[in-house]
């Protein structure tokens, strides 16, 4: 299996995207090459990493979708995803994908939807482990009191994403 890795700049932010021949497996911002390498080693240990022109060509349409999202012109991603994680994490990520554009939910609400309203901390861990930010919209999860909570891409990025979607929160 090949993993196609592209670094790109979007709105003055460095991003990295990784895909296999058909599915996106990773999307993050900032200095996440170390995290990407760990993700590939853990879940795709036999993968050959491909960068440069071949990877850039394969990932170009995903990057264009992100540009449209940041302009407010794309509200739903229809990307093929290959999300590698535990069964619990995958269940939570699936729940995140059901949060509509422009709406925020709390970790407690996600825990209730998962069938275990006591699992708020575990939900937080799963949300934080999301390998495909923005597309699996973990930025739409806020604290029970309406305040912003952690975000793997940083709180400034979370504020940006919430502003794009016109989601209100307590600062």
From TrEMBL:
Q: Which PROSITE patterns match?
A: MGMT
Enzymatic reactions: a 6-O-methyl-2'-deoxyguanosine in DNA + L-cysteinyl-[protein] = S-methyl-L-cysteinyl-[protein] + a 2'-deoxyguanosine in DNA; a 4-O-methyl-thymidine in DNA + L-cysteinyl-[protein] = a thymidine in DNA + S-methyl-L-cysteinyl-[protein]
Its keywords, alphabetically, are: DNA damage, DNA repair, Methyltransferase, Transferase
Q: In this protein, which residues make up the domain named Methylated-DNA-[protein]-cysteine S-methyltransferase DNA binding?
A: 87-166
Cross-referenced InterPro entries, in alphabetical order? Answer: MethylDNA_cys_MeTrfase_AS, MethylDNA_cys_MeTrfase_DNA-bd, MethylDNA_cys_MeTrfase_DNAb, MGMT_N_sf, WH-like_DNA-bd_sf
Q: Which NCBIfam families match?
A: ogt
What is the protein named? Methylated-DNA--[protein]-cysteine S-methyltransferase
Task: Tell me which species this is from.
Answer: Macrococcus armenti
């Amino acid at each position: 299996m090949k993993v196609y890795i592209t670094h790109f700049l979007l709105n003055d932010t460095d991003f990295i995207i990784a895909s296999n021949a058909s599915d996106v497996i990773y999307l993050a911002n900032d200095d996440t090459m170390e995290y990407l390498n760990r993700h590939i080693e853990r879940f795709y240990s036999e993968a050959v990493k491909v960068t440069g022109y071949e990877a850039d060509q394969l990932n170009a349409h995903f990057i264009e979708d992100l540009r449209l999202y940041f302009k407010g012109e794309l509200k739903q991603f229809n990307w093929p995803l290959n999300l590698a994680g535990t069964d619990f994490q995958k269940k939570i990520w699936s729940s995140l994908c059901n949060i509509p554009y422009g709406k925020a939910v709390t970790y407690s609400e996600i825990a209730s939807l998962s069938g275990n309203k006591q699992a708020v901390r575990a939900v937080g861990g799963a949300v934080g482990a999301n390998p495909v930010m923005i597309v699996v919209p973990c930025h739409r999860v806020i604290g029970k009191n309406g305040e912003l909570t952690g975000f793997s891409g940083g709180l400034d990025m979370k504020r940006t994403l919430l502003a794009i979607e016109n989601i209100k929160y307590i600062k």
